[in-house]
Design a protein that fits this description.
Elements lengths: L1 H16 L8 E2 L3 E2 L2 E2 L7 H4 L4 E3 L14 E4 L5 E7 L9 E6 L5 E2 L9 H7 L4 E4 L3 E6 L4 E6 L28 E5 L2
Parallel strand pairs: 1-8
Antiparallel strand pairs: 2-3, 4-5, 5-6, 6-7, 7-12, 9-10, 10-11, 11-12
């Protein structure tokens, strides 16, 4: 009977030590690091206990009625910019997350350091939007939009917003400016 308890204790220790910790920089369809699509604004201090959160006091009020919450490391480096679904509502969930720091990567290793060819190789492109200063590549598989500055494009594609830009027209080495994960 004594051996049974010893085996049970050993098995419990082995199983509990196998618990996999969540990657604080993994970007997926439902999460960005420890933040997920159901996280409420009022819980941001719990999600980012070692980081600074700008434009939110931490109780139920905002410093000013803003729709942008920025998360900084203690050293002042901007990590993420968050937009709540409802402005100035601490119970609101997050609508979208702008990834600012290159340590955040998708499961297929795409980050702000990636190039257009990396996105194209990893994901099926759903849509390309032509904006004033950038193009936005949408990837529905992970609810992501990747912005590329138009300065990365050939000159004939930079100035006409009505022009439909195709993936084949975007240079492989075009750099990602930033990217968003949307939870609308």
């Amino acid at each position: 009977m004594k051996k049974y308890y010893i085996y049970t204790i050993i098995l419990t220790l082995v199983l509990s030590s196998c618990k996999k910790e969540q990657d604080p920089f993994l970007v997926s369809k439902q999460g960005v690091g420890l933040l997920n699509d159901s996280t409420q604004v009022k819980d941001l201090k719990l999600v980012f206990p070692k980081d600074s959160i700008a434009n939110y006091k931490g109780d139920s009020t905002f410093k000013i009625p803003m729709n942008l919450i920025e998360v900084y490391e203690k050293n002042g480096k901007l990590l993420l910019s968050l937009t709540p679904k409802t402005i100035a509502d601490s119970t609101s969930t997050i609508s979208n997350v702008r990834i600012e720091d290159s340590r955040f990567k998708t499961e297929k290793n795409i980050s702000t350091l990636s190039r257009f060819k990396d996105i194209q190789a990893a994901y099926k492109i759903s849509k390309i939007d032509n904006l004033i200063n950038s193009i936005v590549i949408s990837v529905n598989e992970i609810n992501a939009q990747f912005a590329i500055d138009k300065n990365q494009l050939p000159a004939n594609l930079r100035y006409d917003m009505g022009l439909k830009i195709e993936a084949s027209q975007i240079p492989d080495n075009a750099k990602i400016k930033y990217f968003f994960i949307n939870w609308d």
